[in-house]
Amino acid sequence: MKRLAGRYGLTILTAEKLTAKQGKGGHAIREDESFKVIYGHSPLPFSATLEDIESYLEKLEAGEE
User: Fold this and answer.
1) Gap between the Cα atoms of 18 and 32, Å rounded
2) Alpha carbons within 13 A on the beta-carbon side of 31
3) Beta-carbon-side half-sphere exposure of residue 16 (alpha carbons within 13 Å)
């Protein structure tokens, strides 16, 4: 997944620690050029699961995002 994200100028970020607020998540996607988090920051930072990230990247690859 990291290589696929890299093709689009994206980086997959992982929270260092999971907290009660973050729940099961722990991941986000950041745009390398602007350093802006574009996915996994709502409703809380690092709220995306690996499955969410994979789904997002698959849609990006298919041209849906």
Assistant:
1) 24
2) 6
3) 0
